[in-house]
């Protein structure tokens, strides 16, 4: 299989225009760390963004950073850290969960709308994404957005590209707003709460004025013999002392929490972000389930009544990471039947190729949404060049 590695946007345009002329389907990749997410590739060649690399704009005072799509994410994060800044949404590193190599790239953060535990406070990647450049399926270079947040009338291409998984265009440059790194971080850890009680505690904390930046629950066996319910707070030290004290008073009915600080807390939240508790066994399928936070325990209980599963909660219970056997449909029918009654949607993040080929990986769309999705695809990629079928069969 041929691999194209354009050195600049103009070369990428020429490659795509040529492929469109021959209706040659192409797999779009960055570092390849998430290549096994989605339906198996239906392509004849690979188009890589790796040589589209380098920071193109960084204005610390304006809290804006832009870089070409193939720039290693770690390079951008290191640059921001030098000035005491960070990407607000805490992007996940999929390599351990997926067993993949390579380096996560800046463009892939936007293409997959990648966000971790801080999403409950800072929003998703798309909420900080303010500008994109991309090559569409005709080989045309498109620029949308810029260096400031704007109200948009009509089709917002910046938000449209976020989470499109390379099906609409090859991102060549992305621009994000950034935030200052907080002076201090501390985590309240409650022990022994069952799932429903833990989500009630997380909901009480999230509904308070004390501004959590992380809210997770690890059932027994995932982080030790006893369940742990975790609430992260960040900010200036004096403010943090006050908020920790008030939150402990508010939640006294749930027990006396341990306070975790320094590197131990950072390691703990990185493990939650990267789904480390469900990495093993490697043969298990892993699902990412989004639902109303208060419905999380009901969702897992209904699934567990029908098949063996292990799980933990992030986003106050609104994000459920669940591992189950990859045999058959990897639990797709069970999980989606449960969600039809509770509300929510599910994505099959990790499973063998044969399962992903036969099972809807992303949440199935209603007929009207499927027609709309197909229309958007046709408008941006009329020859079906980019990642055909990765998200939905035939699109």
From TrEMBL:
GO molecular function annotations of the record: FAD binding; oxidoreductase activity
Annotated Pfam families: FAD_binding_4 (PF01565)
InterPro entries per record: FAD-bd_PCMH, FAD-bd_PCMH-like_sf, FAD-bd_PCMH_sub2, FAD-linked_Oxase-like_C, Oxid_FAD_bind_N
EC number from the UniProt entry: 1.-.-.-
Superkingdom assignment: Bacteria
FAD-binding PCMH-type domain residues: 1-181
UniProt keyword annotations, A-Z: FAD, Flavoprotein, Oxidoreductase
Enzyme class: oxidoreductase
PROSITE patterns, alphabetized: FAD_PCMH (PS51387)
Gene3D superfamilies the record matches: 3.30.465.10
Record-linked PANTHER family: D-LACTATE DEHYDROGENASE, GLYCOLATE OXIDASE SUBUNIT GLCE
Designated name of the protein: FAD-linked oxidoreductase
């Amino acid at each position: 299989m041929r691999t194209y590695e354009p050195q600049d946007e103009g070369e990428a345009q020429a490659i795509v225009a040529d492929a469109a002329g021959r209706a040659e389907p192409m797999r779009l990749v960055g570092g390849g760390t998430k290549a096994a997410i989605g339906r198996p590739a239906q392509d004849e060649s690979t188009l890589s963004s790796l040589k589209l690399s380098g920071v193109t704009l960084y204005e610390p005072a304006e809290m804006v950073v832009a870089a070409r799509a193939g720039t290693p994410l770690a390079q951008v994060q290191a640059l921001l850290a030098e000035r005491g800044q960070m990407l607000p949404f805490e992007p996940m590193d999929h390599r351990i969960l997926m067993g993949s190599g390579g380096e996560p790239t800046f463009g892939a953060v936007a293409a997959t709308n990648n966000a971790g535990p801080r999403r409950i406070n800072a929003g998703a990647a798309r909420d900080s994404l303010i500008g994109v450049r991309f090559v569409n399926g005709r080989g045309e270079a498109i620029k949308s957005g810029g260096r400031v947040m704007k109200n948009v009338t009509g089709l917002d291409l910046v938000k449209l590209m976020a989470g499109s998984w390379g099906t609409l265009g090859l991102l060549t440059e992305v621009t994000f707003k950034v935030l200052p790194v907080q002076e201090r971080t501390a985590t309240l850890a409650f022990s022994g709460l069952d799932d429903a009680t833990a989500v009630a505690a997380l909901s009480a904390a999230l509904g308070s004025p004390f501004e959590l930046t992380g809210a997770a629950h690890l059932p027994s066996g995932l982080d030790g013999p006893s369940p742990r319910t975790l609430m992260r707070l960040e900010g200036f030290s004096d403010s943090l002392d006050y908020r920790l004290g008030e939150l402990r008073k508010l939640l006294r009915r749930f027990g006396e929490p341990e306070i975790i600080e320094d590197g131990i807390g950072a390691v703990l939240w990185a493990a939650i972000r990267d789904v480390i508790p469900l990495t093993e066994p490697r043969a298990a399928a892993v699902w990412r389930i989004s639902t109303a936070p208060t419905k999380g325990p009901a969702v897992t209980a209904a699934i567990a009544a029908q098949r063996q599963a292990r799980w933990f909660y992030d986003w106050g219970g609104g994000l459920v990471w669940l591992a189950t056997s990859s045999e058959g449909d990897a639990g797709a029918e069970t999980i989606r039947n449960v969600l039809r009654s509770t509300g929510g949607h599910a994505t099959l993040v990790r499973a063998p190729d044969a399962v992903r080929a036969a099972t809807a990986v992303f949440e199935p769309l209603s007929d009207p949404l499927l027609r709309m999705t197909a229309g958007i695809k046709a408008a941006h990629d009329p020859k079906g060049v980019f990642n055909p079928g990765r998200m939905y069969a035939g699109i």
